[in-house]
Amino acid sequence: MSEQVEHLIRKEYAAGFHTAIDTETLPPGLNEEVVRFISAKKNEPEWLLEWRLQAFRAWQEMDEPDWAQVKYPKVDYQSISYFSSPKSMADRPKSLDEVDPKLLETYEKLGIPLHEQEMLAGVAMDVVFDSVSVVTTFREKLEEAGVLFCSISEAVAKYPELVKQHLGSVVPQKDNYFAALNSAVFSDGSFVYIPKGVRCPMELSTYFRINEQNTGQFERTLIVAEEGAYVSYLEGCTAPMRDENQLHAAVVELVAKDNAEIKYSTVQNWYPGDEEGKGGIYNFVTKRGVCHNSAKISWTQVETGSAVTWKYPSCVLRGDNSVGEFYSVALTNNYQQADTGTKMIHIGKNTRSTIISKGISAGRSQNSYRGLVRMNPGAEGARNYTQCDSLLIGDRCGAHTFPYIESKNPSAVIEHEATTSKVSDDQMFLCQQRGLDAEKAVSMIVNGFCREVFKELPMEFAVEAGKLLEVSLEGSVG
Amino acid sequence: MLTIENLCARVEDKDILKGLNLEVKPGEVHAIMGPNGAGKSTLGSVLAGRESFTVTEGEVRFDGKDLLELDVEERAREGLFLAFQYPVEIPGVSNMEFLKASVDAVRKHQGKPDLSSVEFMKLARETSKRVKLDQAFLKRGVNEGFSGGEKKRNEILQMMLLEPRLCILDETDSGLDIDALQTVADGVNAMRSEERSFIVVTHYQRLLDYIVPDVVHVLADGKIVKSGDKSLAKELEAKGYRWLESEVA
Q1: Touching check for B90 and chain A: CB below 8 Å?
Q2: pLDDT in tens, B26-79
Q3: How far apart are CA A271 and CA A430, in angstroms?
Q4: What spatial distance separates the first Cα and last Cα of chain A, rounded to whole Å?
Q5: Is residue A305 a contact partner of residue A268, using CB atoms and an 8 Å limit?
Q6: What is the per-residue pLDDT for A212?
Q7: Angle between the B148-162 and B178-191 helix axes, to the nearest 10 degrees?
Q8: A449 with B92: CB under 8 angstroms?
Q9: Is A342 helix (H, G, I), strand (E, B) or coil?
Q10: Sequence-ordered list of residues with C-beta below 8 angstroms from that of A136, at least 6 positions apart, any chain
Q11: CA gap B201, B2 in Å, rounded
Q12: What pLDDT shows up at residue B56?
């Protein structure tokens, strides 16, 4: 795909007209023809088209969920364009000089190297930049280990059996409104396959892939870890991501076979809208993993972006002795709204789950934790521990907790702890009396509050996440 | 070093300080004693710039600067240190990280370069030994789960690292056993120098056996009603504050 795009872009650039590219963008609207068009554009096999159509038909019968603690104007799904080829070179900024200085300032604060800034800001680059060689080395190392890591479109073409076997096996097409929409029109995403007994030799990051192409607003990720395999996957980026698409509905599916372990870390920093709450991305994500016997799935997320977040990374603990973990920091500022949490479905015996959720609300934002712990009748000896802490900054924001606990097995043990606290005047005074300014004081207190979650992040990510909180909290004091 | 003239301050609608005068010269140790509710702790908070206190009248000059014009953190960076009576916890923020950030902030203000992490850790470990605080406390959250005595030692540790020019100790002796009291006093005494001054706020004479003051003041009803040398503290101990009330009247 990327080569095709590159080719197209070059051709178009050489020819000097860009109307040709425009015909690659579908007019707004969603119907069966659109689904067929997307599938055809991607040269997909018949089964996948059929799969998409099933999802689309189901979606048409479904209603948008309204139970979350978020308010936003109704999305007009017919006003969205569901297929567009990447921006032509001519439309992109030619250098960082043409990029919004405010955005650059943030990049600066996060310490992002110049060439990465260019990539993130979508600067047109004729010269292929340094990290390509890194990507190549990276690829070779993975191949040696037998790890498959590519875009999902590429996987459909190259490994159709693997995709067919697992796609929708964890999040079925009809799972929910947004998952159905994604299944019908997904643009692209990542595919990871770790063979039996293999420990992936490095942390996999979408960053390396996004360099190649824009995955768009309906991202689809599938990670399969065979028996005894291990992989740590990093999604997202601490840099603020701008996107013209207001609606994002991604689906992530994880399959951890017997004794496998998947660690999935996310830093989400989509554009949250301005200080008045204008603009900003709606992020409606379905993430779920299934654990077979003695397998483990660990979700760690740091959510600071988006105007509206609707997201519940979940674990289905199907196999005996399997383990699910959810570590989350969700920070909302200004007019942001987040309704996020997890579901731990205990099916197997002696399954264990841990939920640590840290919600931080500042400005006029609303931050909700919503979590389900379900012990099925067969979940003999299962255990859950949930700790759910909220921190308020200022007096115009809100924090809400909606825990759902269902236990159908008397031997199961469920613990739930919840706290709500404020950044206290005493804490601020102590910090300032020791010479720290108010912003540094708040970010330090908030980072301390999130420590239990940050320590679950890969080292580099943890440092960046700390800085990210600092930047996201700007203007929340004084 | 510090000149306070006719300082009046209130919290909410209550006048607490009602025309307080005080002059502290470099190298001096001043003890402020007085009955409960006299405004002893308020004085420390007002000097440090706590927001909930409003200065209604008066002037405070700190090394020639108008102290009341400065923000809390600016006062701290200028070398004013307040050791708290009830040090607050900051969960999850390691003591080491917190100490480094504050030392960096103060050094930056003084135009000095940041200490490297290695240099700082060495310094912090050595200093914690001097206040008999186990090194494990450097890794723990700021005051998180510390006992009363450990919190106070931690305050003295911060004071030693920041090397302030004016140290205000707000009832640092409260809740300390005799050994901890000795350690705190040793820390303070080790820091005494010709350039550094102390204001020791205390309810009891006991602390002043360990930290011998140059001047003792009695604060009552928002004013300094009597000043004298260290023998005044002994006299107070013997006769109680009531004796003063009759004397002043």
Answers
A1: yes
A2: 999 999 998 888 899 999 999 999 999 999 999 999 999 999 999 999 999 999
A3: 33
A4: 49
A5: yes
A6: 37
A7: 10
A8: yes
A9: strand
A10: none
A11: 16
A12: 96
CB-based contacts of A176, cutoff 8 Å, min separation 6: A62, A65, A286
Other CB atoms within a 10 A radius of the CB of residue A326 amount to 26
Distance from CA of A451 to the nearest CA of B (A): 6
* Distance of alpha carbon A43 from alpha carbon A47, whole angstroms: 12
Q: A70-79 — which CB contacts under 8 Å span 24+ positions?
A: A70/A308, A70/A309, A70/A310, A70/A337, A70/A338, A70/A339, A70/A366, A70/A368, A71/A337, A72/A282, A72/A307, A72/A308, A72/A337, A75/A246, A75/A247, A75/A282, A77/A30, A77/A181, A78/A28, A78/A29, A78/A30, A79/A28, A79/A29
Question: Is B207 touching A (CB cutoff 8 A)?
Answer: no
Interface test with A, best of B88, B114, B152, B166 (most A CBs within 10 A): B88
Distance in Å, alpha carbon of B30 to nearest chain A alpha carbon: 21
Q: What is the DSSP letter of A295?
A: -
pLDDT digits (tens, 9 = 90+) for A90-119: 555 667 777 667 667 766 666 666 666 666
**In terms of DSSP H, where are the helices of B49-94?**
72-77
For residues A189 and A175, what is the distance between their CA atoms, to the nearest angstrom? 19
Residue A63 structure tokens? 């209603």
Q: How far is A449 from chain B (nearest CA, A)?
A: 6
φ, ψ dihedrals at A209, nearest 5° = -90, -35
Q: What are residue B216's DSSP bridge partners?
A: B31, B228
Give every strand in the sheet of B2-11, ordered side by side: B14-24, B2-11, B53-62, B65-66
* Low-confidence spans in chain B with pLDDT less than 50: 249
Cα distances from A210 to residues A149, A150, A286, A316, A453, in angstroms, run: 13, 11, 20, 29, 26
Q: Is A263 exposed, middle or buried (0-12, 13-18, 19+ CB in 10 A)?
A: buried
Quickly tell me which residue has 């997320």 as its tokens: A301
Single-letter code of the amino acid located at B117: S
Nearest CA in chain A to B106: A435
Q: How many CB atoms lie within 10 A of CB B163?
A: 17
Closest listed residue to residue A382, CA positions, set A416, A337, A426, A351: A351
CB-CB neighbours of A93 under 10 Å: 14
pTM exceeding the 0.95 threshold for the entire prediction:
no
Q: Which of B52, B73, B142 sits opposite A437 (nearest CB)?
A: B73
- Prediction ipTM score: 0.95
List the Cα angle A445/A451/A452 in 5-degree steps.
140
Q: Cβ atoms within 10 A of the Cβ of B238, count?
A: 9
At residue A276 the predicted structure's pLDDT band, cuts being 50, 70 and 90, is confident
Pairwise CA distance, residues A460 & B169, whole Å: 41
In degrees and rounded to multiples of 5, residue B230 shows phi and psi of -65, -20
pLDDT tens digits along A365-398? 999 999 999 999 999 999 999 999 999 998 899 9
